[in-house]
Amino acid sequence: MTLKVSDIGEKELIKYIIANSRSITPDDTAVTPLESSNLISTCDMLIQSRHFPQNMSYHDMGFKSVTVNVSDLAAMGAEPLGFLLSIAIPKDLEIDHFKQIVAGVLKACDFYNIPLIGGDTNESSEIIINGTALGLTDKPLMKDDYNKGDLIAITGEIGLAALGFELDVLDNIYVKKALKPEARIKEGLILRDYATSATDITDGLASELYTIKKDGMGFMIHEDMLNISDEYKRLSDELGLDYLDLILHVGEDFELLFTISKDNLDKLPIDCIVIGEVTDSDVVEMTLENGFVERIENRGYEHYVSE
Fold first, then answer.
1. Could you tell me which of 268, 252, 271 has the C-alpha nearest to residue 260?
2. What's the confidence (pLDDT) of residue 307?
3. Residue 45 contacts residue 129 (beta carbons within 8 Å)
C-alpha cells in the first residue's frame, strides 16, 4: 500500500524536512545568529478555501496574513523587523477586492509596527497569501526550556475563535476573535525576560502542548483554571458542540502559551491566566471540574488530514 500525505499529516511532513536539514531550528521560527543578536524568520501560507471563513472581509484576509506571521515572532520574543507579501489571485478578482486585501496588510503592518519591505504576485484559481516576517531578538524564547514545577499560562482566553466560527451572529466577541485575530507581540517582548518557554496557539491548546512536550516531562491542565463562562458552555451546547473540544482542539486564538517559574510569575508585569503546571509524568492530562483526571488527546487542526 502506497503511503500518502493524508496518512501522516502536516506535522510529520515538517518533522521529515527538519530531520533532513542541518540548519532548521525545530521551533516556531528559524533562528539565525546575526552579529550580537538573532534574526528570527517565519513564513505562513493562507489559502482562501482553507483559512478564510466565508464571512471574512477581504480587508480582514489581508490583516490576518500579517497576524499569523507576527504571532510567530511574538512566540519567540522578537522585535518585528520587516514583512514580505507574496500573493496569488484569480485573474477575474475585482480590483477593489485586491485593494482591500492590500489595505488590510498595510493596516496590520502599521498596527504591529512592521514595515512591508517586498514580495511577489502570481495567478491562482483562488486567493493565496504567503507572508514572511522577520524579527530580531537577543534572547529567543524557545519551546522547551521549561522545568518541572513551572506554571503553564496563557495571555488571554482561548476557544473564543473556535466558537465564533460556528456562530451566525456578526457582532459579538466570539465572531470578532474568529474574523479579526490579533497577535500578542507586545506580550511576547515582555515574556522573553520572564518565561521559560513559549509558543502561540494556532492549532488548539492540546496540539500546542504536545508540540512543546519533551521526553520525560508532562503537563497537568486544570479545567477550572480555564475561566470557561456559563455563556460559552450554553452556546456550545445549543450548537451541539463539546465546549472542551472547542477549547482544546480547534485553535486560531493566537494567544501565547508559555511556561514560567513561580517566582517570575509574581514579577510578570502583564496579565495572564495560569492553567496548570509542568510535571514529570510524561503525559498531557487535565483535571476536570468534577475532580476526575483524563488524558488530553493529541489532536488539533492539521493540514492534509483536518476537514
1. 268
2. 47
3. yes
